[in-house]
Amino acid sequence: MRICKTLALALAFALGLPALAQAKDSDAVHVRAAWIRVLPGALPNAGYAVLHNDGDRAVKLVGASSPAYSTVMLHQSSESGGVSRMRMVPSLTIPAHGKVEFAPGGYHLMLMQAVHPVKPGTQVALQLRFADGSTLHADFLARPANATGVSD
Q1: Is the pLDDT of residue 152 over 90?
Q2: Which residue positions does the secretion signal occupy (predicted)?
Q3: Is the model's pLDDT at 24 over the cut of 80?
Q4: Cα(72)–Cα(92) distance, integer angstroms
Q5: What angle (nearest 5°) sits at the alpha carbon of residue 117, between those of residues 67 and 34?
């Protein structure tokens, strides 16, 4: 009898874990002007947006994901001495009452290995993850390779 109670308790706990593990939505951060530059073939795409933090504390972006891509990474492009470089960044801090811009030539979301071809004009769902465990869902507008912004 004691084994049955223990098993029942363990099962109830295991079934309840997914509900406990769900991240809360970020209330402080908002996404504006979100778009993706779609490159031809299997080339990686890049996601751009402006992240606004309306909160009283800085927020640290630690990752992103999308059902449309197998991998999403935070990257930063830079130029020095006429040489362009790109590096992965582990996190990015959005200051309290401030913003961070993801733009060509700077920070961006590197979108690797599209699950299905992403066509310009479609919306692509991304989820941003923050160090405090919160998440933010945002739709990014897919734009052609020659686009320079969300609405050029």
Answers
A1: no
A2: 1-23
A3: no
A4: 14
A5: 60
